Amino acid sequence: MGRKIKAIITKVGLDSHERGAKLVATALKNAGMEVVYLGSFQTPEGIVNTAIQEDADIIGVSCLSGEHLTLVPIIIELMKKNGIGHIPLIAGGVIPKKNIPVLKAAGVKEVFGYGTTMEDMVQYVKDICNNN
User: Fold this and answer.
1) Per-residue confidence at 65, pLDDT binned at 50, 70, 90?
2) I need a labelling partner for 97 at 20 to 30 A (CA). Which of 48, 72, 73, 104 fits?
3) Mapped to the 3 state alphabet, what secondary structure does the chain carry?
4) Interval 20-60: pLDDT, tens
């Protein structure tokens, strides 16, 4: 890539617990990436619109409210409808292990749950963005 990786990091749905998402945003920024942090209470439409406006390379969504099986597939469908289905979408938060295959089948590239190191997540983002 000829420019910095640009990541959209956000909370989706009614979840207001931002600590993890803010840590991810900071880790990516410290690794030299450009980060657009949208904060809490974002809608799938708003996330996709921002990704288009910002020419994002990756989207990271965090969900702790249990809405991940509903809202994340909506984001993926909107990405496809708006011509940005090629942008990797990663997810994190409190996501039960049994839900990870469901999310991946819907189009999520990777799920980062409890215990993931920031180093591993940053390296994954670098790898997937530089190989896309």
Assistant:
1) low
2) 48
3) CCCCCEEEEEEECCCCCCHHHHHHHHHHHHCCCEEEEEEEEECHHHHHHHHHHHCCCEEEEEECCCCHHHHHHHHHHHHHHCCCCCCCEEEEECCCHHHHHHHHHHCCCEEECCCCCHHHHHHHHHHHHHCC
4) 889 999 999 999 999 999 988 899 999 999 999 999 999 99
- CA 26, CA 40: separation in Å to the nearest integer? 16
Burial, 130: exposed, middle or buried (Cβ in 10 Å; 0-12, 13-18, 19+)? exposed
Type of residue numbered 130: N
> What are the structure tokens assigned to 1, written together?
């890539």
